[in-house]
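On clarity, I found the account of how folds are encoded harder to follow than it need be. Since the whole study asks how a given chain folds, the encoding of that fold should be made plain. For the editor and my fellow referees, an illustration may be useful. An entry of this sort, consisting of the sequence and the corresponding backbone structure tokens, reads as follows:

:::
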Amino acid sequence: MSKKSSKAQQAKVATTYNINDTVLGKVRGFPPWPGMVVDPDNVHPTVALEHPSSKKATFYCIRFFPLGDHAWLVEKDISKLQRHEIESYISEPHKKSSELLNGYHIALDPAT
């Protein structure tokens, strides 16, 4: 098997996300931002109306920290955010947006 075909197969492996997973979401025009996968059945009706309809892609509803903005994102625009990644970001020199830094602090323990 060639390297190209094995890489292509790895790229096709879909990641699934569960409700309450802490993730890093990418929305055009913004840096990657921490948030949480939320239950689409329990979002505000205006958020639910924004759900894109597609038979080819699965969209996840992401609530971003700290303000609670929502976006519907596909798998390629989301990655699971691990605790060590959050801690690493927080410990870096603070040349970042305070809202973004606050979002990472919330991502450490979203239940609070």
